[in-house]
Write a structure and sequence with these properties.
With 480 residues, the chain is mainly alpha-helical. It contains 21 helices and 5 strands. The N terminus is likely disordered. Strands 1-3-2-4-5 form a 5-stranded mixed β-sheet, sandwiched between helices. Strand 2, helix 3 and strand 3 form a beta-alpha-beta unit. The protein starts with 7 loop residues before the first helix and ends in a 10-residue tail after the last helix. The chain is globular.
Length: 480
């Protein structure tokens, strides 16, 4: 999104932010231990130091050259500043001390997927989930591992181990990953998905799961990749059937994979008859709640928030308004605590979208306006806070304020995300009822999307922008 130099403020803050200490799901206090006598008193052990990953930023060629020179695999973090899960991963997982043994065994590349300098890479590495993580071997630039969305530290280490073994296999042809093994089959799925070949990816992931033992630690995240492949490949009925069959297996490891799997299965549920769609959403709800409420849950605050959104949306589709509101209130309270505990403006920005959305959902949008204005002033080079502020103003009908914030966001944004900010300006003109101004704004959006290079150009986004332009001044279609 911009130039090849990543913003040092973001990388430094991601390393420096401490883990959040609070936000316990239980309000009960732990029983106090009796005070130790002077003889028993011992200094508290020092907490393990957070790691600082030696990122190469937005320079694939440099990362590849180093990997070839040092004969190391490349770990790629494909992220974006608007992606709250990306920011959470950088601040809470990618600093975990247990990553220290991997630091010298990989070349580490972070790719802001909206920067124009990275557009060409996106023609070779498929991404439609943020974040997406890849491990590549410099030998043929071959994909050795891939992970979609949030990862627990255990999942991340598993991915790194798989990627490293695949790289050694590629470099030495040593049979590190025997043909037909679950990891080799999963790697085949990752390569197919990375190339956008979703049917082949689905088949390979299915074979990997069939070959794996019941306690395979990669089961949940491979299920996410398989259902994503069906959804992205247009096999919506197969997506729903996979959800019905395997929702319960996604709780393995108590990670965000259960929520990610539920997202896709819920999108596909209406391909089933109403009774089976209801059954599917019930099973998905059980799986997500089991992980969310588990004492050994590996969910971060951001992951918990996503789980509560998924539970809310499925409750609404199940016509359970009471549960939907309860999930929203729980999410709001969770994020209010997280924002209050954040040590820096960037820490607060991590939660800005879900925090904003849930407050508006609950009819509490006005109370956030001063805080979003403050965050926008504290982070003058970040486009996401003014973009979210513009959205809140638009929901509240404060159109002058919405336009001013959206113009600021559009001036700061780049790559595909700039198109979203420009589209919001068109939405403001539509809300005003100014047909000529809306038409001009919609034309600007179409022109912008047409100007994007391969890798950033989205036929779906362009088609939507053209459709919106053609609809200017016409009556809204009747809602079913």
């Amino acid at each position: 999104m911009g130039n090849a130099v990543a913003r040092p403020t973001l990388r430094a803050a991601a390393v420096a932010l401490a883990l959040f200490a609070g936000c316990q799901r239980s309000e009960s206090k732990e029983r106090e231990a009796p005070p130790a006598s002077p003889a028993q008193a011992r200094p508290a052990p020092a907490a393990p130091r957070q790691v600082e990953i030696p990122w190469i930023s937005d320079d694939y060629a440099a990362a590849l050259a180093r990997a070839r020179a040092e004969k190391k695999p490349i770990f790629i973090d494909m992220w974006a500043p608007w992606c709250h899960t990306c920011l959470s991963m950088k601040q809470l997982v990618m600093v975990d001390p247990s990553l220290a043994p991997f630091l010298d065994r990989f070349v580490w590349l972070e790719v802001d997927t909206d920067r124009p300098v990275n557009a060409e890479l996106l023609t070779r590495l498929h991404i439609d989930v943020w974040p997406t993580f890849y491990v590549l071997s410099p030998e043929g630039e071959s994909v050795q591992a891939r992970h979609l969305g949030a990862a627990s530290i255990a999942q991340l280490r598993e991915m790194l181990a798989q990627g490293e073994a695949g790289h050694q296999d590629a470099m030495a042809s040593s049979g590190v990953l025997p043909e037909g093994s679950p990891l080799a089959l999963a790697r085949a799925g990752d390569r197919a998905a990375g190339a956008g070949e979703m049917a082949a990816a689905d088949e390979a992931y299915g074979k990997a799961l069939a070959a794996a033992p019941a306690d395979w630690p990669r089961t949940a995240d491979v299920l996410v990749k398989q259902i994503s492949a069906r959804y992205r490949g247009g096999d919506l009925k197969g997506c729903a059937e996979l959800g019905l069959r395997d929702a319960g297996r996604t709780t393995q490891g108590m990670t965000a994979s259960a929520t990610d799997f539920a997202y896709y299965a819920d999108q596909c549920a209406d391909q089933l008859d109403p009774a089976r769609a209801r059954l599917l959403r019930g099973r998905l709800t059980e799986a997500v709640r089991a992980v969310l409420d588990a004492p050994d849950s590996a969910l971060s605050i951001d992951d918990q928030s996503d789980a509560l959104v998924r539970l809310r949306e499925m409750a609404e589709k199940l016509e359970d308004a009471t549960t939907a509101r309860a999930m929203a209130v729980r999410q709001r309270d969770l994020l209010d605590r997280a924002v209050a505990a954040a040590k820096t403006p960037l820490g607060r920005m991590t939660y800005v979208w879900p925090w904003t959305e849930v407050h508006v959902y609950l009819g509490e949008g006005p109370k956030l306006v001063p805080q979003l204005e403050k965050l926008s002033s504290e982070l003058p080079k970040e486009y996401d806070p003014p973009y979210r502020l513009a959205w809140v103003h638009l929901q509240l009908g404060a159109l002058d304020q919405a336009k001013a914030a959206a113009e600021r966001a559009a001036g700061l944004a780049y790559g595909p995300r700039k198109g979203r900010a420009l589209a919001m300006l068109a939405d403001v003109e539509k809300a005003r009822g100014d047909v000529a101004a809306e038409r001009a704004a919609r034309k600007t959006v179409v022109d912008y999307y047409e100007s994007l290079p391969p890798g950033h150009k989205s036929e779906k986004a362009l088609a939507g922008a053209r459709e919106a332009l053609a609809a200017v001044g016409k009556p809204e279609p009747a809602k079913k």
